[in-house]
Amino acid sequence: MADQEETLMTAECLKDMEEELEYMKSTRRKEVAARIRQAIEFGDISENSEYEDAKNEQAFIEGTILNLEKKLRNARLIDEADVSDVVVSVGCIVRLKDMDTKQEMEYTIVGSVEADPSKNKISNESPIGKAVLGMSVNKKVIVTVPSGVRKLKVVSIRKQIK
């Protein structure tokens, strides 16, 4: 299918998703099926909130499974050989300096499924991620982010240490 978008991810992310999918299919499905059976045993399901909750949870689990399967089907692993320490690329760690505040921050550039700003993992599709891709050390960029305009300079680029 031509409309299927690639899901860029590291081997670690792929492993985590496969484990989550297996858990959802093997454990969570069984747990919710048992809850539904138990709720049915209570009798009239038309006014049974336990049954309704279990059915809603079942729908959520099935949606999660379908979503994980789609991402895994469209997965494209980030090849460690393609990760550069000369130009910013997906899979590298980049140190940026805010030219106004002089503050430095370090980000790992990842695919959108792995993005986790609380762990300084930003997507290659985010405003900063897009702006710095392909840039080398000492290059400057002006990027518009939700909080305004930022002037950034690439201070260093390195590969992740495994």
**Can you tell me the residue ranges where pLDDT is under 50 for at least 5 consecutive residues?**
none
The first-to-last residue Cα distance is 34 Å
CATH topology (level 3) name of the largest domain: Chitinase A, domain 3
Question: Mean pLDDT, nearest integer?
Answer: 89
Compressed to H and E, one letter per element, the order equals: EHHEEEEHEE
The share of residues in extended strands comes to: 25-35%
Number of strands: 7
Q: What Rg is obtained from the alpha carbons, in whole angstroms?
A: 22 Å
Largest sheet features: 5 strands, mixed
Number of helices: 3
Binned, the helix content reads: 25-40%
CATH class of the largest domain: Alpha Beta
**Given the C-alpha coordinates, what overall shape results?**
elongated
CATH superfamily of the largest domain: Transcription elongation factor, GreA/GreB, C-terminal domain
Number of domains: 2
Which structural class should the secondary elements be placed in?
A: alpha/beta
Sheet with most strands: strand arrangement: 5-4-3-7-6
Describe the structure.
- The chain folds into 2 domains: 71 residues, Orthogonal Bundle (Helix Hairpins), CATH 1.10.287; 80 residues, Chitinase A, domain 3 (Roll), CATH 3.10.50.
- 38% of the residues lie in helices and 25% in strands.
- It has 3 helices and 7 strands.
- It has a 5-stranded mixed β-sheet with strand order 5-4-3-7-6. The chain has a two-stranded parallel sheet with strand order 1-2.
- Helix 1 packs antiparallel against helix 2.
- It starts with 6 loop residues before the first strand and ends with a strand.
